[in-house]
């Protein structure tokens, strides 16, 4: 008899069965890395928009390269394109975010996931410029640092709709309900 009780509780406090153990918080890696790659149709459209702009700026170099002009253009285009891509699929992603919260994911993990997806989206979309600058300049050139800055700004812009969504009262009410 005692052996059956011991097997049921597995050495925990008396009366606490295996089914009622407290769940541990899940690791950050599955939450963050599961959604780090762009996978939606809106992400593909944003990548294609950024790639077209990048290709145009690479192939339409009839005059000397004007660094402030292209950086200003990218600094406006990349965050707006990334934010639009993040907004276009918000109804489905809210259910996914609720599930991640329910299984123990933190808000910071979910935000980091969207930041990484936006940075990936920006880097893939701006890959023609990355390749041009890597082929013609040194690794730590000003243009590559500016491109990296644009990619990070794109990641932050991609995460901003999710930040607003997960901090809203409606999200909390759905989580509790």
Please characterize this protein's 3D structure:
This protein has 177 residues and is mainly α. The protein has one domain. It is 73% helix and 0% strand. The longest helix is centred in the C-terminal third of the chain and has 25 residues. The N terminus is likely disordered.
Order of helices and strands: HHHHHHHHH
Determine the strand fraction and express it as a percent band. Answer: under 5%
Percent range for helical residues? over 70%
Segments where pLDDT lies below 50 for 5+ residues?
1-13
Q: What is the total number of structural domains?
A: 1
Shape summary: elongated
Average the pLDDT over all residues and give the rounded result: 78
Count the helices. How many?
Answer: 9
Structural class: mainly alpha
Terminal CA distance reads 42 Å
**Rg result:** 23 Å
Major sheet: none
**Number of beta-strand segments:** 0
């Amino acid at each position: 008899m005692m052996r059956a009780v011991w097997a049921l509780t597995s050495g925990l406090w008396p009366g606490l069965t295996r089914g009622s153990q407290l769940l541990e918080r899940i690791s950050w890696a599955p939450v963050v890395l599961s959604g780090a790659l762009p996978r939606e149709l809106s992400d593909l459209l944003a990548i294609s928009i950024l790639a077209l702009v990048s290709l145009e700026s690479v192939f339409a170099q009839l005059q000397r390269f004007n660094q402030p002009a292209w950086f200003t253009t990218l600094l406006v285009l990349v965050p707006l394109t990334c934010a639009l891509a993040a907004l276009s699929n918000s109804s489905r992603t809210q259910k996914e975010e609720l599930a991640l919260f329910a299984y123990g994911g933190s808000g910071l993990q979910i935000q980091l996931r969207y930041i990484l997806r936006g940075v990936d989206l920006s880097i893939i979309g701006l890959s023609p410029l990355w390749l041009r600058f890597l082929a013609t300049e040194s690794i730590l050139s000003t243009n590559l640092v500016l491109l990296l800055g644009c990619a990070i700004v794109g990641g932050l812009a991609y995460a901003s709709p999710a930040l607003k969504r997960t901090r809203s009262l409606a999200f909390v009410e759905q989580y509790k309900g």
